[in-house]
Amino acid sequence: MFYSRLDNYTVLDIMNTNLLKIPGDMNMRNAIKQMLDKNVEDLIIVDKEENIVGIMSFMDMMRAMKDIPKGNSFDDKITKYAMKDVIVIDGNAKAIEARNIMQQKGIGRLPVVVNNRLVGIIRVREILNEVYGRIDDTMQTFRHILDNLHEAVCVVNKDGVVVLWCGKAEKLYGVKEEEIVGKKLEELFPTGLLLKVLEGKKPIENVLHSPREGNYVNISAMPLFSNGELIGAVSTDRDITEVRNLSLELEATKEKLDYLQMEVNKISEDKYSFGQALGKSDAIKEKIDRAMQVASTTSSVLIRGESGTGKEVFARAIHQASGRKGPFIAINCSAIPENLFESEMFGYEGGAFTGALNKGKIGKIELANKGTLFLDEIGDMPLYMQAKLLRVLQERQVVRVGGDKAIDIDVRIISATHRDLKAMVKEGKFREDLYYRLNVVSLEIPNLKDRKEDIPMFVKHFMEEFCKENNIFTPRITPEVFQVLMNHHWPGNVRELKNTVEHLVVFSKEGEIKVESLPEHLLGRLAHHEEMEVPYDLQENIKRIEIDTIKRAMETAEGNKAQAAKLLNIPRSTLYYKIKFYDLVDYL
Q1: What fold is seen in the domain 272-446?
Q2: Nearest to 394 by CA among 355, 363, 434
Q3: Where are the domains of the chain?
Q4: Does residue 198 surpass a pLDDT of 70?
């Protein structure tokens, strides 16, 4: 009777299509995550050609995890622990064949293939659901299979009386078979999921339950019908205690990472805040005020200035002041090969082109969602990419390379260049429509030589930063060295000054930066200056140098005596005295 019932079905009739396929090079950590996310009981491991190379059940995973950290690792490839000799069954085979294979091999699942292509999986649960007609006749047949399953299986009749309680159920719940079989389930488990299934006559899947403190179970249950009449219900329970604990551990780790990220953001906010890293000179104050005014808006900003003036630092300061929750993502348009530009900006789907990652890759624009995208050296962006970027700005959507799904984005664009974009527009090297889209607000960053009063602040900042990073004492800088720094033209701007300060600290001696600590090119300028000193009258030389130095300091400070005294590293009263002593009437 039982066998004739199975003959009425093919494997395709009763198989389950809810399965999870993963590549063989995936590690255990990601496999566990996918298994939890997809709520599946087992996973099928396939190669690049979709051939089945392994199978692993939930409990197989648990056994492998028990040896962590003794020998196994969450970073091991999943194929290390999977069953390699996978038995499959053709979808057109009779269900009786599946039953016979499972009984003979003592296995609880069979992948189903049609024309060598994986189409589903058949488990004991599927067989029970379709052929469960008379439990008394089938009990002996399935007993051996059920006792060898990794899941705990319980079967009740239509009155809620337990008729099957397999060995794994005994271990999981601590209830012996003789203590429960023949009794109503509600006597031992008043809130049992099977009782709800009998009442509602509908399956309930993947319910988390804690039968004992510190013990967690995932339960699925379904009603059993014969000729349209309810005759009972079956449940399968998976012990997920270790995975649950792992999940809690991962969640705790994530919280720690979130906290660390918050701390890093605080550091970044201090490092790139207005006034802290941009300068305090009159030449830069107007730019800072303008940037602060536009920071809280979504307007695009174009920052212009020579190399090394601090355009990216300025852009980061705008982002920090904007209050945008997303990240600051920087792209140097001159550093990306033209053939990689599109995939770098927009990302790509898995297998979109030769060499692409199987899982695909998110693009920089998508990464900057809710934040700021900084396009440095925008003048070096290829024309074909300019058209694509313009479309993104207009539609507020991106489509990954090889994909067809439009992804909504909310990105604020800040771009920077040392080129004359207007001239490039006239020459046809830059799109006019994109230029006006980017140049909503324009900021011109002055060169360091035009704001030398910021040099003392930068020198102090770079010295403290470098010494802190290298855990060394901050040396004292002598007035002679400071004078050389103030007189230098700084063609490399702030970047050159930073590198020079690091050189000075490295070659300082006995906690002091002296003339001999200067780089060779600055020493050469100093030597050239000294060679021009022909008179040997010491007093006259001192007088001439003091007058010349005071004049340059007053010009740099634009007549501000307090600022000039700070540059000269002397008290303001001494500066007043020397101006009167040398009769410098233009500065009285």
Answers
A1: Rossmann fold (3.40.50)
A2: 434
A3: 2-129, 132-239, 272-446, 449-531, 538-587
A4: yes
